[in-house]
Amino acid sequence: TGMRRGEVCGLRWTNVDFEQQVLSVEGAVATTAGGVVAKGTKTHQTRRVALDDATVQLIRAHRSNCEAIAERVGVALAIDAFLVSYSSDGSTPVHPDSLTGAFRRLAKSLKLEGVRLHDLRHAHATELLAAGVPVKSVSQRLGHADASMTLNVYAHALESTDRAAADLIGGMFGQSSASA
Fold first, then answer.
1. pLDDT tens per residue across span 66-80
2. Distance from CA of residue 37 to its chain's centroid?
């Protein structure tokens, strides 16, 4: 989804719309001197992120697992439970560093040493831009306050589409890039 790790930790089941296949990113979890706290997003704005069918199915399966765990210990999954939680009722969020650590272990087990959790956010943006998704759409998915931020950080992805742009223009005028 291109979400920040704190936003993933801050997701609640009430933020998932299975029918519309979207997540509402309304908050995040941050580390403070006093511990982990729920807060607003980095830009203090709510955004909606569309989900593909496979991701929706994974989230549904995760929901079923969370409900089964809660039932096994005799509690109900809270209506506003966190999607990622170590508590059986989902009432407390996972520490962002725990999410990072789990990703590190997963990457290592897959022999993807050196790949960071935040690299998934960058890959998400880069691939969308390289595929021709409008910058404004990518910016909104990432939660950037302004599309210029997306352009500044991911300009390399747009450069990679320059050949496709040249071929498109050449094709419009009946020329290929080889003959132009």
1. 999 999 999 999 989
2. 20
